[in-house]
Amino acid sequence: MVPNSTTKKQTPQEAGDDDISMSRPPASHQQPIGEEDASMADVEEEYEEGDEDDEEVAEEETQRVRLLPGSSPNAASFEFLDEGHTLGNALRYIIMKNPDVEFCAYAIPHPSEAKMNVRIQTYEGTTAIQALEKGLRDIQDLCDVVTDKFLDAKLQFLEDAKA
After folding, report:
1. Does the global pTM surpass 0.85?
2. What is the 3-state secondary structure (H, E, C) of 67-129?
3. CA of 14: how far to CAs of 26, 33, 75, in Å?
4. Which of 24, 34, 100, 102 could connect to 126 by a Cys-Cys bridge, CB 3.0–4.6 Å?
5. Within 10 Å of residue 87's Cβ, how many Cβ atoms?
6. Alpha carbon of 113 to those of 77, 90, 107, 116: distances in Å?
7. Sheet containing 65-67: which strands, arranged edge to edge?
8. What is the pLDDT of residue 103?
């Protein structure tokens, strides 16, 4: 059977309302009517002003890490709230560098929940809690080093740009 070559092809404008115009973003990406875009400077000013309520807010924060049931001193599972793959993978990597750690893994139980679980098993002589604490300190130290190197490179770049 030979295709009908006399069929007229429609342009997007002729096709009707079925096609979406790409001249403007979808409604979900548009700013709601009446709301102004806050600049980063405004947000920083609000943050720096601070209130007397800051101490109260810190006390009201929920505990973000908890020891899950069924744990022993050398094998424990921890649940982190509001964390994901970014912290999970870095923490797993750093903890596995510890020679006292036999096993470490993390999992995100469900993508719609903001939870991350970390499982740590250690050799005799150290506990899973100590391994977690050391891992968190090591990540913090690593971040401090990266920040320092970045700021040094930024200053060097700015000095080179002025010259």
Report:
1. no
2. ECCCCECCEEEEEEECCCHHHHHHHHHHHHCCCCEEEEEEECCCCCCCEEEEEEEECCCCCHH
3. 21, 31, 66
4. 100
5. 16
6. 17, 20, 12, 9
7. 65-67, 75-81, 115-122, 101-107
8. 97
Q: Which domains does the chain have, with CATH numbers?
A: 65-135 (3.30.1360.10)
Q: What letter represents residue 65's amino acid?
A: V
Structure tokens at 117: 């679980």
CA 80 → CA 68, 72, 77, 96, 132, distances in Å?
A: 10, 18, 10, 18, 12
Distance CA 137, CA 118 (A): 16
Predicted pLDDT of residue 38: 46
Tokens 């209130």, residue located: 51
